[in-house]
Amino acid sequence: MIEQDLRELEEKSIFIIREAKAKFGNVAALWSMGKDSTAMLTLARKAFLGKVPFPVIHIDNGIDFPETYAFREELAKKWKLDLIVAESEIKPEISGYSCCGANKTEALKRVMDEHGFDALIVSIRRDEHSIRAKERYVSPRDRNFKWNYKEQPAEVWNDYSSKLDSKGHLRIHPLLDWNEIDIWNYIRKNKTPINPLYYSNKGYRYRSLGCTHCTVPIKSNAKSIDAIIKELKDTSVEERSGREQDKERQYVMEKLRSLGYM
Amino acid sequence: MKIKRVTLLGHKDHGKSTLIGNLLISTGTATKDRINEARRISRSLGRQFEPAFILDSFSEEREGGLTIDTTRVQIRYKDIGFEFIDVPGHEELIKNMISGASYADFAVLIVSAKRDEGIMDQTKRHLFLAKIFGIKKIIIAVNKMDSIGYSEERFGSVAKSIGAYLEKIGIDSRDYEAIPISAYGSENLVKKSDKMKWYRGKTLLDILYEMGREKEKKPKNNFRMIIQGESDGRYFGRVVSGTAKVSDEIKILPRNDWGRIKRLYVKGKSVRKCRDGDNPAIELDEELKFNPRGMVALPRSEEFNASRRFMALIFATEPMRSESTIKFIGNQIRARIKFIDEISTTDGERKKMRGKELAPLKAASVEIILEKEIPAENFNESQELGRLLFYSGEALSGVGIIERKL
Ligand SMILES: Nc1nc2c(ncn2[C@@H]2O[C@H](COP(=O)(O)OP(=O)(O)O)[C@@H](O)[C@H]2O)c(=O)[nH]1
Hints:
The complex is a heterodimer of chains A (262) and B (406).
Chain A: H1 6-23, E1 27-30, H2 35-47, E2 56-60, H3 66-78, E3 83-87, H4 98-115, E4 119-121, E5 138-141, E6 169-172, H5 180-190, E7 204-205, E8 218-219, H6 225-234, H7 245-258
Parallel strand pairs in A: 1-2, 1-4, 2-3, 4-6
Antiparallel strand pairs in A: 5-6, 7-8
Helix pairs in contact in A: 1-2, 2-5, 5-6
Chain B: E1 3-9, H1 16-26, H2 32-44, H3 57-64, E2 73-77, E3 80-86, H4 94-101, E4 106-112, H5 121-132, E5 137-143, H6 152-168, E6 176-180, H7 204-213, E7 224-231, E8 234-241, E9 243-245, E10 249-253, E11 257-266, E12 269-271, E13 273-275, E14 281-284, E15 296-299, E16 307-316, E17 320-321, E18 323-328, E19 331-343, E20 350-352, E21 357-358, E22 363-374, E23 387-392, E24 395-405
Parallel strand pairs in B: 1-3, 1-4, 4-5, 5-6
Antiparallel strand pairs in B: 2-3, 7-8, 7-15, 8-14, 9-13, 10-11, 10-15, 11-12, 11-14, 16-22, 16-24, 17-21, 18-19, 18-23, 19-20, 19-22, 23-24
Bound molecules: guanosine-5'-diphosphate.
């Protein structure tokens, strides 16, 4: 995994976050309390000299880890976040890998409508999955959150689209260029507070965080950020592996469907 | 680690995926699992090992019959990281190609040396766009040398014809280099091939490395900051050249108002000075009475004329007519285009333009007359302030660079 130049990454992300704020009337960010969206908030605080100038949305299905809720309260207070908790219910008939998509999407739609948000900052990275390859820094979604990747407007030379059909919204992706290890280097450099679930406990830690239903820990003894970075440098395993093959495939298909591929 | 972005140009089946696959293997970037998976797939299809199957898009493409690009490919070589940007071939719209390629530092053109393959028109258009994007260096990788008996002569003739095209469209011979390779046999990619002893140059990765090491010849420019917006009385922007420090006087073009810098912040911290690449927040001794979004800040003492007439080189992605709209650092301005010469994007020939419309995938040398002045510069002095986007309605219709302010 290549460690990229943090200055370049950081400056570009700050530019994108400010562009979102300057260009769109009503911006919000998704905050899962995971490492990526928390790093994004660190960037936003730098971009706007210490404050996060937009609401942050947690889509809460009630089954996140207790550590995650505690972390949310602590940081929301410390950073004076304008936190919106969008409660989503878990429908028992939707389970497994469609859960994240279907159950959370409804709640997000509701919150977007209620507040009239027209742009949403989402902390995805291009190295997460090949599905992300066609993502743009600013990417339109329609009313049903579908992504028509073939009809995306061109994105040339830092000129981001603001084309919006009346009922859709734009996704803003300030972390698109970052690698997993860059996020950790950044967190270390900036002493960004981090959800304790990322540290090893009894020989296991979480490498990416979701809710209690489908997040699986990896074997690890990394109890500090330095140790996590070292572990990442040594590993040849990808971030989202550790899931079984067929589950992974199912995940991918779900994801594709939710992105409007099928 | 510094990352250099490399766009891969080339027609389908000329060997782009094979090249990337073998670069991933030879540099030790691909994991054992990946390589084994690629072996398994090759075998199950009853084929020889296909390095192209290393790219993980494959399983998904097969599953849904979709074409999804590959995961980003980053390869470390010595102390530089190279990110390879795959450019969609002919089946996808040129606007998707330009979205990826507009961020590239270098281009690698892959062209098959097989007699029935050779360079295609769409690939030449991509090369033309590389010029407009200010891509600094181009490598012409003449592929499939194994299939033509490693013929020096055939290599020479392919390289020469592409070189002639590049020079015709104004790319200096110092800015491109040709190399014979076999992507499939990993020859001249990372290790020198012993089958082409007549080739005295470096390997592909070594050429890229050398390009990556070369210090960027940025023209020495004064302070320029593109202003993004305002919040709490501070002005945000992106410094595209030069430096500024507290107590400097800056003016805001095209308004011509000015102020003295009272405070400066970079990455949220109060600093004395900001430089090229920073996104500072600036406090002036007096607040501006207008929103400066899309304007440019520069030293007050500098003589600088904003202008409304330019000679430009443009490339149409959609039909372009004389009545048009340009976008310059985010501002839309009405424009009239006087077409002068049409430039063929497949052979570089110029001819006088009679019509009043430029068809898609064609280029032209034009004069542009804007409704109002903009603080633009010549492209060879400032890439950031020397480029223009063209719109018809909401959709991009073309891209261009300013060759001369009038
Ligand atoms: N003989 C020969 N065949 C090659 C070479 N490189 C690629 N190919 C073959 O050309 C075909 C297309 O290659 P691929 O990498 O998929 O092309 P792409 O469409 O440009 O990505 C495949 O069957 C490859 O095995 C080479 O160096 N020599």
